[in-house]
Amino acid sequence: MHTTPQEVAELASAARMADALAMQKAAYLAHPVPTLAERTKDLRTLQRFVRDHKDALCDAISADYGNRSRHESLLAEIFPVVDGINHTLRHLRGWMKPQRRGVDLKNFFGARNRVIPQPLGVVGVIVPWNFPINLSLVPLTYIFAAGNRAMVKMSENSRHLTKLLMREMPKYFPPEKLQIFEETGGVGIEFSKLPFDHLLFTGSGQTGRSVMAAAAQNLCPVTLELGGKAPAIVCEDFPLRKAAERILFVKYLNAGQICTTVDHAWLPAQHIDGFVTLAREIVAARYPQLASPDFTSIIDERSFDRLLKALDDARARGAKVIQLTPGAAFDRSTRKIAPQIVLDAPEDSILLQREIFGPILPLRGYTKLDSVIEAINAGDRPLAIYPFSNDAAQVQMLLDRVMSGGVSVNDALFHVAQHDLPFGGVGASGMGHYHGYDGFQTFSKLRPVFYQARFSAMKFLAPPYGKFAERMLAFLAR
Fold first, then answer.
1. Where does the Aldehyde dehydrogenase domain lie (predicted)?
2. Which CATH number fits domain 231-421: 3.40.30.10, 3.40.309.10, 3.90.870.10, 2.40.37.10?
3. CB under 8 Å to 187, separation ≥6 — which residues?
4. Could you tell me if 186 and 16 are in contact, meaning their C-beta atoms sit under 8 angstroms apart?
5. In the predicted model, what is the mean pLDDT of residues 302-316?
6. Where are the alpha helices (DSSP H) in 74-168?
7. Four-point Cα dihedral 378, 381, 384, 388, nearest 10
8. Which residue is catalytic, options 225, 236, 245, 347?
9. pTM, rounded to two decimals
10. How many angstroms separate the CA atoms of 339 and 318, rounded?
11. What are the backbone dihedrals phi and psi of residue 398, each rounded to the nearest 5 degrees, phi first?
12. Is 355 noted as a catalytic residue in this protein?
């Protein structure tokens, strides 16, 4: 049977990844528990890499997008990594300490329990294109803090960045500690098939299912960070301008290409016109023209066409599409689509059925908050919800009745930026958590250890069972 050049390349990539994993597992077995000093050095080295290459990293990401706002890259990529490492360095000593646990069976005559966090071994990381530094190096922070080694597979849409990482990262970390792999076609599924000690995937739900199925062949535990249709819920009591300013900032950040962005917004029906008026004013001031360097391009032509098709579908079904910036609605040469608001999109429209992942904000009106709750709960559990209300009881009611991966109250997205909060989905929006101490735990084995006392009463409970054993067991079972 004839083997195509693509198949040959895929086989070669699979072999290289298998060899890399074997090397890292051997290194782990030779030195399974790095010291605090060694982990601290790894974290400082990772931080130094980011600081040394800050400008080059921003430029590479922008080249991959066509145009990526430098300020957005600094805000959402560089700062979270540097600051997250600082947070981890402050807390790592405490995280590594064995935990004391109580001993059952009447204190077991001096025995003691401990839970010891130990490295898992080698962790695989599959990185999406939308925040490729954040979603590769933030996980590496907690992977290294837990004492592991890592293999990282980048996205096919991050070509320039991947080349930079593959060229420069080996100057900071040896291959038995960290290796970066590029997507050349078919690499992702082969990567998922490797027998890692843990696998972290960030991306779409459809791809996440394939990754999980491949990892299951090795019983490899997975953390899946997926997406979904995260809603903002603006309540009657909340100031409309404040809600508009905060929702619109998050929605058009990175041109809406964020898994935790506001996918759509629910507003009291009588406030929709007011919100649109405010949106025209606010967005035009932030992005006075489509060519603004502060407004990011859509990542590729396929995504660009998908978003235009979704807008056309909404119009064809009677929705009203409102452009929020002057000038052209889109520019194919730069893959930019002007910020849009959509009113009266029908339930079966593409915009309401699929995650949008672009600069398009459907507004949905309601008269009773119960109808919003029912609509959200009728779909998959979202990665986040964003309630806007100054009524604490009303906010708590939404938290109780609408399950999601995370929540930001009276703002959007910012729960993701808190180092002490676990980040992760629920149901169709993902499984597992990382960030902060929860990240350290995810990439550690919390190993239970029972230390028997010098004297053990268990010798009196061995067969053949007599009256003493019977009395002892009766005492313990009171």
1. 11-447
2. 3.40.309.10
3. 10, 13, 17, 153, 181
4. no
5. 98
6. 79-96, 134-145, 159-168
7. 30
8. 225
9. 0.94
10. 19
11. -65, -40
12. no
